[in-house]
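Q: How do we represent a protein-ligand complex in a form that can be generated token by token?
A: Start from the inputs.
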Amino acid sequence: MLKTAKLSKPHFATLCFESVPIMQAMNAESTQHDEYALRTAQFFDSMGSDYENAFAHDACLNNFIKKVLTMFPPASSVLDVGCGTGTPVSKTVAAQGHKVTGIDIAPKMVELSRKAVPNATFEVADMLEYVPKQKMDVVLNILSLFVLSRKEMETMSKKWAEWLLPNGLLCICMFAAEDCNPTKDMYDEDGLCARGMPHMFMGQQDLLTMLTRQGWEKMLEDAGFKIVDTEVDLFEPPAGAKSDPEPHYFIIARRLS
Ligand SMILES: C[S@@+](CC[C@H](N)C(=O)[O-])C[C@H]1O[C@@H](n2cnc3c(N)ncnc32)[C@H](O)[C@@H]1O
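Then emit the structure tokens for the protein with S-adenosylmethionine bound:
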């Protein structure tokens, strides 16, 4: 609540953060949480529908959504976390008769989602603080974990378990560290996460923090999930998007009863 009120004040919208790569800044474990939320919201608000124009036509993502839809119970309650503009994910899922709630930290993204998917519910919220009104059949976190630190990803894994009904479905799209060309020195001591991997996203050079495949497996198992399917697919954003190719790592996991 506090965060939403802060973000809606006009003077926050004029703050400038261009000099610091967003993901680099946000991946520092010591980052102040309010600053993180504000910068993330501003970064994605500044993009608005440009993001959708560049990324919504990703055939692999659209195929993944089609695949997971076959695993949803009829009329599922679905939470789309970091919903962006609502297209293609919330829109495709809602069109199949599921009850979609989308959250995003960026108010402009939520506004675009509301317009694009009028038969779903959207709200401005930080996933790290959000508490759903009901337990969900399905949680989707599609390309929305990039600015989280390793510790925050672990926090999210516990939240997914709290938010889902027993046997509920968790669908994630991220990158796995080993697909981002890390050097040996970029790995954490336990070898399950790598940091500082350069990546260009929408014209901005960032440094990524990513779990390895084994890191994902361990984190999700520790949180009470069983991975049922994974796949990797390289998405080539259009030239105008000023973004590096993205090795999308898709994970489908079930919350154990
Ligand atoms: C790369 S976009 C992906 C959007 C959408 N899931 C899709 O695949 O089209 C990432 C989205 O996650 C949102 N986001 C990032 N951090 C967030 C957080 N802590 N809480 C909620 N949303 C967040 C951003 O505002 C942005 O809209």
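The two ends are 32 Å apart (CA to CA). The domain at 3-173+216-228 is CATH 3.40.50.150 (Rossmann fold).
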